[in-house]
From TrEMBL, chain A:
It is found in: Cell membrane. Keywords: Cell membrane, Membrane, Transmembrane, Transmembrane helix, Transport. The chain crosses the membrane at residues 38-62, 98-119, 131-153, 173-192, 233-253, 292-312. The keyword Transferase does not apply. Belongs to the binding-protein-dependent transport system permease family. Residues 94-308 form the ABC transmembrane type-1 domain. This is Sugar ABC transporter permease. Its main location: membrane. PANTHER family: ABC TRANSPORTER PERMEASE PROTEIN (PTHR30193), INNER MEMBRANE ABC TRANSPORTER PERMEASE PROTEIN YCJO (PTHR30193:SF37). InterPro entries: ABC_transporter_permease (IPR051393), MetI-like (IPR000515), MetI-like_sf (IPR035906). The keyword Electron transport does not apply. It is a multi-pass membrane protein.
Automatic annotation (TrEMBL), chain B:
Residues 1-31 are annotated as: Disordered. PROSITE patterns: ABC_TM1. This is Carbohydrate ABC transporter permease. Gene3D superfamilies: MetI-like. PANTHER family: ABC TRANSPORTER PERMEASE PROTEIN MG189-RELATED (PTHR43744:SF12), ABC TRANSPORTER PERMEASE PROTEIN MG189-RELATED-RELATED (PTHR43744). It is found in: Cell membrane. InterPro entries: MetI-like, MetI-like_sf. The chain crosses the membrane at residues 46-67, 103-130, 142-165, 171-192, 230-251, 271-296. Residues 107-297 form the ABC transmembrane type-1 domain. Belongs to the binding-protein-dependent transport system permease family. Keywords: Cell membrane, Membrane, Transmembrane, Transmembrane helix, Transport.
Length: 328, 312
């Protein structure tokens, strides 16, 4: 690399670092004099063009065709989308995905907030606790889905054994419609509560303490401080966690696939949208329909994200991004 | 526990203060009041710790249970009442595992893919981040916005066409199909750019330029050393993500002799469902190295995840 590192001194004079305001040459000479920067950023754009943009454009085309990946590509107009709108299996997958999203996100974010509050107290072993809570987030979901499958197993699972010991009727976790959804939701909660708690904790730590002191001198109760100071200050971070939970929740795949297989379990009760896409494209080899499902998911996710955004960012009273003053 | 006991006793003695001989002694009274307040604070702390510990146990228990199952026979796993302590069949489960699937080559493949992904991402992302953070060039802002926009594209959108692309260029079933497409990413460039623009002084870059150093020299001598913290995080993050990647390997690794741990584990799970102990030994093999990597880098890792959410 050092071979190409000594530019002519003219170049250094003409293109100063970001600190000096724009004195750069216009036109092609200006562009050429910055070739090292273009070389530096090129890999991302080249990879994106080949493995990002091209597949996306291609998938629009594919969604208007009927193709099994082997024979001729047949143009099929809107028929994939017309089929999709009438496909009860697709809408079942949509409903499942949203039910699981709701069952997991609400308790998860609530628990995360509680954990963040507890960790925010000035207590010992905080470092250890943070690692322990974060651990589920970094482990392979395939392995843990297998573990959860045995814990929630209908006949001999740990949960049902505990229920039996307590003289409570055991629950068909992996064969009933609600049981399947709850089991998947529990896996999501287990995996992401600690992650969200760590994020809330960082948010709590960034709230200036004089805000609390001022509220206390004004005689505010703990509950008032929580609802009037903490929650508004955390609003942007709560929005962030809701958006990431939505994106993650709508693309749920590994948990149901490992737990229940490609068909999504009894009555397709655990069939999620991405699992249905995988099922149609890679087990039925219906590439056209698989692409149409992918675009339907994209539209659903966008609409849902916009709704979330609107609901949560109505009052933008908390100042954001004050620290970002990048000169460039 | 001793703190809880002493808490209770001191709380009990506090109201009984007046009966004591030095009841009207004012400093004495104040002390017992203070003691009650301290006791209450202590009790609150104990309750906080207990609540947190419940969460910690729930977080960690599945790992413990995985370890228990991988040391037990299938009959023991499904016995009633379930036995919550380690068994003695780990060696046997491991032996069965090695004779059923080629877990060793899956492990090697996973290490190759994860390590190469991490190294390539660290290199390409830091180069781009340094250019974006410390240099001005025509089209920079538009290119940066374009890069951020790629964040919004969900991965599931391109599963089908990416597979077709891979089959056209003959990469289906190969490891480069897992490594090359993700060798540079918007997430890492954005993250490192944030760090570089705040932590590397413009004066330092400028004086290096005046001394005649070119972009790549400045990147290597100033950029890389000053982005070291962010690079370490990005490396570990990429390694973990690549290690756990499942959907894409599941689609593209069609050769049963060339798998990663995740896909090999899923094969094991669907083919040998009756030998639970062995499947759990496989799951343990796929999880343990990762936990090691995480715990080594955990402090840094968690701080960066949190900082990313706050700033992003």
């Amino acid at each position: 690399m050092s071979v190409m590192t000594t530019p002519p001194p003219v170049d250094a004079a003409r293109a100063p670092a970001a600190a000096v305001p724009r004195t750069r040459a216009r036109g092609w000479r200006g562009v050429l004099s910055h070739w090292p920067q273009y070389v530096a950023i090129a890999p991302f754009y080249v990879l994106f063009l080949v493995f990002g943009l091209f597949p996306i454009v291609f998938s629009i085309v594919l969604s208007f065709t009927d193709w099994d990946g082997m024979g001729e590509i047949r143009f099929a107009g809107l028929s994939q989308y017309i089929y999709l709108v009438q496909d009860s299996r697709f809408w079942n997958a949509v409903a499942n995905t949203f039910i699981i999203w709701f069952l997991s996100t609400v308790p998860m974010l609530f628990l995360a907030l509680v954990i963040a509050f507890l960790l925010h107290q000035n207590i010992r072993f905080r470092g250890f606790y943070r690692v322990a809570f974060f651990l589920p987030n970094v482990t392979s979901m395939v392995a843990m889905a297998i573990v959860f499958g045995s814990v929630f197993s209908d006949s001999f699972g740990l949960v049902n054994s505990a229920l039996t010991a307590l003289h409570v009727d055991s629950v068909p976790w992996l064969s009933s419609s609600l049981g399947i959804k709850v089991t998947i939701a529990v896996m999501v909660i287990w995996r992401f509560t600690g992650y969200n708690a760590i994020i809330y904790l960082a948010g709590l730590q960034s709230i200036p303490t004089d805000l609390y002191d001022a509220a206390k001198t004004d005689g505010a109760s703990t509950w008032q401080i929580f609802t009037r100071v903490t929650i508004p200050m955390l609003r942007p971070i709560i929005l962030f966690t809701v958006i990431t939970s939505t994106v993650g929740g709508l693309s749920l795949f590994t948990e149901p696939q490992v737990l229940l297989g490609d068909a999504g379990g009894n009555g397709e009760a655990g069939m999620t949208i991405v699992l249905y896409q995988y099922n149609q494209a890679f087990t039925q080899f219906d590439f056209g329909y698989g692409s149409a499902i992918a675009w339907a998911l994209f539209v659903l996710a966008s609409v849902f994200a916009i709704i979330n955004w609107r609901l949560l960012s109505e009052r933008r009273d908390a100042p954001r991004r004050t620290g970002r003053k990048a000169r460039s | 526990m001793t703190t809880a006991d002493s808490t209770r006793t001191s709380e009990r003695t506090a109201p009984g203060g007046p009966a004591e001989p030095r009841a009207n002694d004012r400093p004495g009274l104040r002390t017992s009041g203070d003691r009650a307040a301290i006791a209450r604070a202590r009790l609150e702390k104990v309750i906080t710790h207990l609540l947190i510990l419940v969460g910690v146990v729930l977080s960690v228990f599945p790992f413990y249970w995985l370890a228990v199952m991988s040391t037990s026979t299938t009959a023991q796993i499904f016995g009633y009442p379930p036995r919550l302590t380690f068994g003695t069949s780990f060696a046997e489960n491991l032996r069965n595992l090695f004779s059923s699937v080629d877990i060793l080559s899956a492990l090697v493949n996973t290490i190759i893919v994860s390590a190469l992904c991490a190294v390539l991402v660290m290199f390409f992302d830091s180069l781009a981040a340094f250019a974006f953070a410390k240099y001005d060039f025509p089209g920079k802002n538009a290119l940066f916005v374009l890069m951020i926009a790629t964040f919004l594209i969900p991965g599931s959108l391109s599963l089908v066409p990416s597979f077709i692309l891979m089959s056209k260029i003959g990469w289906v079933g190969t490891l480069q199909a897992l490594i090359v497409p993700g060798a540079a990413n918007a997430f890492g460039i954005f993250l490192l750019r944030q760090m570089a623009s705040s932590s590397i002084p413009d004066e330092l870059v400028e004086s290096a330029r005046i001394d005649g150093a070119g972009f790549f020299t400045i990147y290597r001598r100033i950029g890389v050393p000053m982005m070291r913290g962010g690079l370490a995080f990005l490396g570990i993050f990429t390694f973990i993500t690549a290690w756990n990647d499942y959907v894409w390997p599941l689609i593209v690794l069609v050769d049963p002799n060339r798998q990663t741990l995740q896909t090999a584990l899923q094969n094991l799970n669907s083919l040998y469902l009756t030998d639970y102990g062995m499947v759990m030994a496989g799951a343990l093999v796929s999880v343990l190295p990762l936990i090691g990597v995480f715990i080594i880098g955990s402090r840094h890792f968690i701080a960066n995840i949190a900082a990313g959410a706050i700033k992003g």
